[in-house]
Amino acid sequence: MITRFSTLYVGHIELERCGFAGMPADDRRYPNQRLAEVFETSAMMARACDELGYETLWLAEHHFQHEGYEVIPNIPLLAVDLAHRTKRVKIGCAFNVVPTWHPLRLAEDYATADILSKGRVVFGIGRGYHTREVETFGNPMLDAEANRELFEEQVEIILKAFREESFSYQGKHYVIPPEVAYRGYQLREITLVPRPVHAVEVWQPIVSGSTRGLDFMARHGIKGVISATAEQFVDRWFRDYQAAAQQHGRALQLGENLILGFRMAIAENQAKAMDLARPYFEEHAKFMGPLGMLRYGEELVSAVAARQAQKPTAASLENGVRNRAWLCDTPDNIIAYLKEVERKYPALDHVMIAWALGTPRHLMIEQLGRFARDVMPAFAGRR
């Protein structure tokens, strides 16, 4: 039963001339004053979510994007500020790009945010998909196998730091602690100070549905987010995630420990909703296509798995709507579809809505309000 609703704001500023006929993505460059607008937008989104009954405002971490598309470099730091501006909404990390961090620094920052926000920050992890940010921080992105190997080792360290009073770790990339003398004794273990004081849920995006990725998540009890993905892959990955958990001794109901996300536009009819979404859909495809991150159909998902660049025009809004990666419709039709999803995945309790890169602040907040007013009350069990 769907009981929880969240939203995702990836940290874009308001962009002019959006769409395939607008400004080329690589021609966008904004002064620092404009890029800093993302923090006021984050505060306005957080206050709206707090007042409208959303459980979580998810934010994305990215670096060096002078184009203005994804401009939040440190989610735990921003989350502390937003928690002090709001009363109840949680702030989710969707996702901390782990290969841009030392794992213990990320664990420390999250633990500090957990304490200062009184448990209102949700931990999330990802491998990254921008070569510019990961490689600039000195870690691999072009080499996908090296990136995954590093990420897995980093996550194992973070989880030990969260879960154990003191620990040591020896791997290919890290020896923690180093074998050095300290205050007259040999260092053998180390303690994260502070550690989180609230239970830590760990969330990770499911982007290609690989067997290795799902097995890693299941082995460590990591929960999954599938967002803006064609529904045939949603169904396959929901079942593969359940099977991976079973192999590690955890019997999950179909949809349990998962979030299903959609990009969305609500209007009086489907045509108006698609007109509302189209320029921002095209801007999103224009930026994300060359990064290989569109998942609206079979061909696109195959390219994601192969880490291949996609032509932006290979994705159409019609395709995204048809395959249910996008919900562009009336409130009644969106309710009807989510009720179908509820019947299909009986243990799914969490739905996340989002908008494309470039969607103006006022439109995101208006749509948040409309969804809260016209869709959320149809789900009587919602928290």
What does this protein structure show overall?
The protein is globular and about 75 Å long. The protein contains 13 helices and 14 strands. The strands form 3 sheets. It has an 8-stranded parallel β-barrel with strand order 1-2-3-5-10-11-12-14, surrounded by 6 helices. A two-stranded antiparallel ribbon has the order 6-7. The protein has a domain at 4-94 and 206-378: TIM Barrel. It has helices spanning 32-35, 37-52, 75-85, 103-116, 131-136, 144-163, 211-220, 231-247, 270-288, 298-305, 317-322, 331-344, 361-374; strands at residues 4-9, 56-59, 90-93, 96-97, 121-126, 169-170, 175-176, 181-182, 185-186, 202-205, 223-227, 258-266, 326-329, 350-354. With 383 residues, it is an alpha/beta fold.
Brief account:
By secondary structure, the protein is α/β, with parallel strands linked by helices. Helix content is 42%, strand content 15%.
Main β-sheet description: 8 strands, parallel, barrel
Strand runs, count:
14
Our Rg estimate from Cα atoms comes to 20 Å
Secondary-structure arrangement, i.e. CATH architecture of one domain: Alpha-Beta Barrel
Alpha-beta content class:
alpha/beta
Low-confidence segments, given as residue ranges, are none
CATH superfamily of one domain: Luciferase-like domain
CA-CA gap between termini: 11 Å
Q: How much strand?
A: 5-15%
What is the CATH topology classification name of one domain?
Answer: TIM Barrel
Helix content: 40-55%
- Count the DSSP helices: 13
**How would you describe the shape?**
globular
